[in-house]
């Protein structure tokens, strides 16, 4: 199982071809983290968290942020040691062997492609709400929601995923300036939301605080984890950081602390103004998000509750008497979310590309378009995959499935850090995880805890996906692996690529 290890020295030879200038201090790292984290999850998943935990979702943000912090410290050590493409897949290959690396790469498909689908559905919710508010269009629910959510097909979500796929095939790259503007727009929109809602909070809306108990808070934390994806952007910058041993922990924990406080303020603004008690069924049972039962209950009250909204923040502002600001927040989400989909899908194609080049996936996956110089085959396949999931599944389910893959990958990285400390204690580490014997086990335990706090359907789907991955590995990949055949390539072009494509607007 652990016999086929891709030599770490061969991987590191890639990185040594080009060293990066160390220019980032603690403040720059913290701002990088804030820009990478704040966005999609808080725009899209607030209603899901409210349905699972009620006002207790504020505690869920703290739990998810803490698990992210310890996982990020482990991730940073591996990112600094192995600054080449492939993310957790490459780290696992170097430390725990091919089978574990394959399973991590297979799980990363859930992280990237399914996350892109989730953001597409979130974008659709804001787009439909914005069109309705702006032009009073009464769009049939059958065309803008999937079958689990009271509709038939989500055409806007499918459309935006198709558009992004086309852009990726053409090779369109976002500029740093555009990214910076979009980061500023979304942070300004959320800051405006907090400024307008906090002064009119009613304390009575926070009672009962945990209507579904700690189980509900844990389930919401497992979903809300999606709102923090992107924090590893800080980890991958270790090679460009001045005094990384001091500045990396400050940047990681500082950015996560700021984001957690910001998220809690937004959650408080929602809870305290319009309430966030879960919808119950006819027998008093709390209904699960993204189910026909919840859709029917919401339809009975004409979606007049934040847990029913597909654009929770804009809906809240309209409800408390700020329709124009609600319109602006919706517009901000519509502008910012497509770039998240782009980066998620780019990340997916990159993981596929690296796995294909290692022989674990068919060679045609890494074919380059003769004109556009992009991996068009795998980009189109990824686009079809994302579009189908966005068309037929609700955002909460997609986010949870994405989280299952992410949590598995982060747990694998945390294990890799411990293993490598034992097997190669003298290897150069630009950044060392502080108190690794405490931090890494807490990270692993935190990832396991959040994983098993996901819904039974999500966990079942993950293990089904893992079983399918094992079948593909043993029937195809194992016999074609380059490492298995004794071939290990070093790719100079990887020296410019961070360990994981940074999703700057998640």
Relevant terms:
single chain, transmembrane helix, Amino acid/polyamine transporter I, amino acid transmembrane transporter activity, globular, membrane, AA/rel_permease1, 19 helices, mainly alpha, 506 residues, transmembrane, disordered C terminus
Question: CATH-wise, what's the superfamily?
Answer: Amino acid/polyamine transporter I
Q: Architecture in CATH? A: Up-down Bundle
- Report how far apart the termini are: 35 Å
- SSE order in H/E notation? HHHHHHHHHHHHHHHHHHH
Number of helices: 19
The value of Rg in angstroms is: 22 Å
Low-pLDDT sequence parts: 492-506
Structural class by secondary-structure content: mainly alpha
Mass-distribution shape: globular
Within the CATH hierarchy, at the fold level, what is the topology? Amino acid/polyamine transporter I
CATH class: Mainly Alpha
Strand fraction band? under 5%
Largest sheet, in brief, is: none
Average pLDDT:
86
Query: Roughly what percent helix?
Result: 55-70%
Count the strands? 0
Instruction: Provide the number of structural domains.
Output: 1
Protein name: Amino acid transporter
GO molecular function, one term: amino acid transmembrane transporter activity
Region (Disordered): 487-506
Transmembrane segments: 26-47, 59-82, 88-105, 112-131, 151-169, 181-201, 213-231, 252-274, 324-347, 377-399, 405-423, 435-452, 458-476
